[in-house]
Amino acid sequence: MHGDADLAEPARLMGEPARAAMLVALLDGRSLPASELAGVAGVSASTASTHLAQLLAGRLVTDRRLGRHRYFTLASAEVANAVEALQLIAPRREVSSYSQSATAERLALARSCYDHLAGRLALDLADALVRDGAIAPLVAGEPGRVLDPATPLARRFGITGGVGAAGGSTRRPLLRGCLDWTERRPHIAGRLGAHVLEHVITEGWIERRRGDRSLRVTEAGSRKFAELARD
Question: Which helix (H) or strand (E) holds 217?
Answer without folding.
Answer: strand 215-217
